[in-house]
Design brief:
182 residues; mainly alpha; 6 helices; globular
Length: 182
């Protein structure tokens, strides 16, 4: 796919297919790694210790290839739909709230990337925004719904955020490397 610098608002069919395939591939990779970590620890989102790398690799690569506003919102919407019957994506199986929580978090990153015209600075600033808003929004929803995941996540949220951001920067760097090899 060529670099789209005009920032068209419409996705072409091949871009939609690319986004969906990348979301599905990320799901498969994270499922094989992340579901085991969550099952062992019992802490929702604990897979972030490892999947921070894979998530940001895919986010960076997909955003750089498509370069359109909404690409990451759509990407994470599809990912959340695939993750709905699992413990992945920040909630127990069937936790429908993980879909809007992921999509809204990704929308913030989409806005930041659009404003910075998909330059590296947008990615660098966007990772902590995505992470902190994402974890905080899950924490609030868990609390409001009285879910037991609140206590589990509350106890490790600072460490998880720091590790996810650090590993996310590694994944981001790998995403830039992969994109530049194309």
């Amino acid at each position: 796919m060529e670099s789209n610098t005009r920032f068209s608002h419409r996705f072409r069919t091949k871009e939609l297919i690319f986004i969906a395939l990348m979301a599905a591939l990320l799901f498969v990779i994270n499922f094989t790694i992340g579901a085991g970590i969550i099952a062992v620890s019992g802490i929702p989102g604990s897979s972030a210790f490892i999947t921070g790398i894979s998530n940001l690799l895919f986010i960076t690569f997909v955003a750089l290839v498509v370069r359109k506003f909404g690409v990451l919102t759509l990407f994470y919407f599809i990912y959340a739909l695939l993750a709905l019957p699992t413990h992945m994506a920040g909630g127990p199986p069937g936790f429908i709230w993980k879909i809007p929580l992921l999509a809204i978090s990704a929308l913030l990153l989409d806005i930041l990337l659009h404003v910075t015209r998909f330059r590296k600075v947008g990615f660098i600033i966007g990772l902590p925004v995505l992470t902190l808003f994402g974890f905080a929004s899950y924490l609030v929803v868990y609390y409001l719904l009285g879910m037991p995941e609140f206590e589990k996540l509350y106890g490790v949220i600072i460490v998880m955020s720091i590790i996810f951001i650090a590993l996310g920067y590694l994944g981001m760097w790998l995403g830039f490397v992969l994109f530049n090899k194309m």
